[in-house]
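Hey,
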Amino acid sequence: MNLIIQIGNKILESLKNINQIIQLLVDAVISLFYLQKSSLRANMNVLFSQIRFTGINALPLVNKLALLLGIVVIIQAATYLPKIGASDYIGSIITLVIIRELGPLMVAFIVIGRSGTAIATELCSMKINHEINALEVMGINPYQFIIIPRLLGVAISVFCLVVYFDVIALGGGYLVSYLKIKLPLIAFMSGLKQSLALKDLILSGVKGLLFGFTIATIGCYQGLIIKGSLTEIPQAATKTVVRSISTIFFFNSLLAFIFYYS
């Protein structure tokens, strides 16, 4: 009975969190209808700052991981496939492993560690220091100034980072293919073209936007629900990481089912 009660409590807690997150999103969308032209410039500055931090500042790390991942994947493929006469399928391996799955997931993990935790920590500090209340006193809508720019900024940044990650990984993969088995560029591009469908590109883009939106939403939610204690800041950052990863894997599985099995 205790186990059943614990499971029931966990389910109720999860449903409560989902309801609160949905309410947060609804309030944020409603706030857009009351957006004033005079505050648009300030909101855009916050949006560009978020894009710069989440997207541009993450490029060096994304560049290294994408290059290394492309190299590792192709080393494994180029070592095994020629033994069975399947060198032409190296492009297919890149499509299946990187563009469909690992590219969006790796970018999401990077953004969770950098921006998701940063958003949660920043909003926790703002709430503890009563900065959010101060914004409301000054007539500034917190949803317009805090939530919306972060949601849009992270979603746009993750989308662009996924595209960049795929390009760099493809470049690293071809470099190893050429050095190891002297695979011509034409053969590499031909295999890539044959295995890459339009829905693969659409899926990768949808994952980028959805993952970014999810990370920012959970980060904002965890930062706003604290009671006011400094000890809650690291807890909020940890919960942001755990819940973002679990939610992203759920959406990743759901999208794979919708695009390839439905």
